[in-house]
Amino acid sequence: MIYSVRGKLISKINGLAVVECSGVGYACRTTQVTLSDIGSVGDEVMLYTHLSVREDAAELFGFANMQELHCFEMLISVSGVGPKAALAILSDLSADRFALTVASGDSKTLTKSKGIGAKTAQRIVLELKDKIAKENKNSDWSALSESVVCRDDSSLGDAMSALMVLGYSQEEIMPMLLQLDKDMSSEAMIKETLRLIGSQNLQ
Q1: Cβ(110)–Cβ(91) under 8 Å?
Q2: What is the pLDDT of residues 148-166, one digit of tens each?
Q3: Rg, Å, the chain Cα set
Q4: Which residues of the chain register pLDDT less than 50?
Q5: What's the count of helices (H) and strands (E) in the chain, helices before strands?
Q6: Exposed, middle or buried by CB within 10 Å (0-12, 13-18, 19+), for 169?
Q7: What is the pLDDT of residues 40-68, one digit of tens each?
Q8: Which domains, from first to last, does the chain contain?
Q9: What's the pTM?
Q10: How many whole angstroms separate alpha carbon 82 and alpha carbon 86?
Q11: Cα gap 35→12, rounded to integer Å
């Protein structure tokens, strides 16, 4: 089992990072998030890895942090979700944002990733929601939401705070806020979230 690789980054292309360790180049399939985080070609990097061995192939997957690796391993444990689909999801969502999306039951956000249909997204939420909620038992919704907000901008945080003042819970509003364009103003986010809540209540 290869736990991690550390060395010089000698190639960085779409979906692949090659790390040279003692003269051997390890090709690690990875996410766009990790590719953005690990630096430039020539830098020394470390990736946490998962080795997948099948009858017809052996592939190494690498991630910039343990959280992303853990999310990847949870995803591929879901029936019908392979490494390619898991990488697609984690290229669109950071590890903490993925955890929040699943914990809030927001399968719609998962369908925005390439190759993820509605049934697969619903299966991911069904199989992982309780597991993620249990792991986050010691870090409540506020802590998880705060980490996501910090990665985005103040508009999302302002909108979330205002909606909570109006009496809505984080569980109600975060799935809707995460669907919105992060470049929207906080006022526009609030207005659109209230519209979505109103539409749900009418159904």
Answers
A1: no
A2: 554 445 677 777 777 877 7
A3: 19
A4: 138, 140-142, 150-152
A5: 10, 5
A6: exposed
A7: 999 999 999 999 988 888 899 999 999 89
A8: 4-64 (2.40.50.140), 67-138 (1.10.150.20), 139-203 (no CATH)
A9: 0.71
A10: 6
A11: 7
